[in-house]
TrEMBL record:
InterPro entries given in the database record: Pribosyltran_N, PRTase-like, PRTase_dom, Rib-P_diPkinase
Top-rank taxon, per record: Eukaryota
Organism the protein comes from: Penicillium arizonense
GO cellular component, one term: cytoplasm
Protein name: Ribose-phosphate pyrophosphokinase N-terminal domain-containing protein
Length: 428
């Protein structure tokens, strides 16, 4: 029996909200989620949430920016309506792939070359510009400027003291007669100062400083907290360290038990199959499954770390491991354009794999991902319904969908009753 628990579903995945509420045995709360003609989101919570434990379900696929804003407004609406606690349930966490800036092998940000002949990273340097002043280092421009102003001021004070008249500044005001040496001292000081200031005016920071890649992951974490979220529930975060961006509890559920059970039930003689990670980033995730199931593991190594689709298409891929005459099972956290899994499947078939399965927690499948899968060497693609899959299922005969509603329902029930979440995955 769940008391004082309210579940609100956003527009991103009404079916999942229904499934979760079905397991919990409560109806979703009445909310009006609409838009003004201009496109602004409008949220009306149509029942009382005073002193209630509220769970708002909003996933990260589809119109991700609209859904995020809708979630923020709904959190804030519940908070200001005196909800006791508000938990944002994000089956696929939006922006979690942007928790760091893209970088190359040397650790420098990947930025466009600004001009012909400039190195691929745009001439990025780890040196700060202007250099930090310090013992034995040349003075920075800022410090020089300060010193020059001081010298100029002192020279002027000397002239004024000896002549008893104010010295004309370089602004066209009448100038009193002064001794040549003092005049030249003052003018010299002015020249030095104006040289320094023209250096500042013409100062161009190095290209690495002009480019700034937004760390949207940090901002999204802050926005959720500022809107009033007290707790986050999500699944298979792209980068589990992203939890550290929050100063509220984050429960990162695993999709692993669902994927493992699919393998056990549906892949014939699965112990002879090979678990494959399509890139180094997902190796930990895939080896965890291979180890727990006593299966072999292979890795596809991408020659360089790509950040754009075009980069990914150009990246060289090579297989580390043996898949000849065996079923290869690709494991990844998400498929967006599906470029990663379709290219990996092509390579695995070339290396002699008899069949290729892709088991992916979040089937975002944007743009022409479905067409790409249909035309690919993949035999089967298995995703969870952390993102809406009805339309994908209609278009893709190779697609199979695993239900996650009961996992989120159980997590909500446990959080509501103050029970452990980790025991949920203790024996997976
Ligand atoms: O379907 P796609 O459009 O090909 O995208 C899917 C890939 O993107 C993500 O990794 P990402 O390339 O962001 O980097 P990482 O795993 O190296 O962190 C994800 O882990 C997949 O491997």
């Amino acid at each position: 029996m769940v008391r004082n628990l309210v579940v609100i579903g956003g527009n991103s995945h009404p079916q999942l909200t229904q499934n979760i509420c079905g397991v919990l045995g409560i109806p979703p709360a009445e909310v009006l989620l609409s838009k003004f003609a201009v496109g602004e989101t409008r949220v009306e919570v149509q029942e009382s949430v005073r002193e209630k434990d509220v769970y708002i379900i909003q996933s990260g696929g589809g119109k991700v920016n609209d859904h995020l804003l809708e979630l923020l407004i709904t959190i804030s609406a519940c908070k200001t309506a005196s909800a006791r606690r508000v938990t944002a349930v994000l089956p696929l966490f939006p922006y979690s792939r942007q928790s760091d800036i893209p970088y190359d092998k040397a650790g420098a940000p990947l930025i466009k070359a600004g001009a012909p002949g400039r190195p691929a990273n745009g001439g990025y340097t780890f040196e700060s510009t202007p250099p930090t002043p310090g013992p034995g280092k040349p003075e920075g421009l800022g410090l020089m400027n300060g010193m020059d102003n001081l010298q100029k001021g002192l020279a002027r004070a000397q002239i004024e003291e000896s002549t008893g008249s104010p010295v004309k500044r370089r602004n066209g005001l009448p100038r009193n007669d002064t001794t040549d040496s003092l005049k030249s001292a003052a003018n010299g000081a002015d020249d030095a100062a104006s040289n320094a200031s023209s250096k500042i005016n013409s100062f161009q920071p190095r290209p690495g400083y002009k480019q700034w890649v937004a760390q949207a992951g940090t901002l999204v974490a802050d926005l959720l907290t500022c809107a009033g979220a007290d707790h986050i529930i999500t699944m298979d975060l792209h980068d589990p360290q992203y939890q550290g961006y929050f100063d509220i509890p984050v429960d990162n559920l695993y999709g692993r038990p669902l994927l493992k059970s699919y393998i056990q039930r549906n892949i014939p003689n699965y112990k002879q199959a090979v678990i494959v990670s399509p890139d180094a980033g997902g190796a930990k995730r895939a080896t965890a499954i291979a180890d727990q199931m006593g299966m072999e593991f292979a890795l596809i190594h991408k020659e360089r770390r790509p950040t754009k689709i075009t980069d990914r298409q150009n990246a060289t891929m090579m297989l580390v491991g043996d898949v000849r005459d065996r079923i290869a099972i690709l494991i990844d956290d998400l498929a967006d354009t599906s470029n990663t899994i379709t290219r990996a499947a092509k390579l695995l078939k070339k290396e002699g794999a008899s069949q290729v399965y892709a088991l992916v927690t979040h089937g975002i499948l944007s743009g022409d991902a479905i067409e790409r899968i249909n035309a690919s060497a993949l035999d089967k693609v298995v995703v969870t319904n952390s993102v809406e899959q009805q339309e994908h299922l209609r278009l893709c005969p190779k697609l199979e969908v695993l239900e996650v509603g009961h996992v989120f329902a159980e997590a909500i029930r446990r959080v509501h009753h103050g029970e452990s979440i980790s025991v949920l995955f203790q024996y997976d």
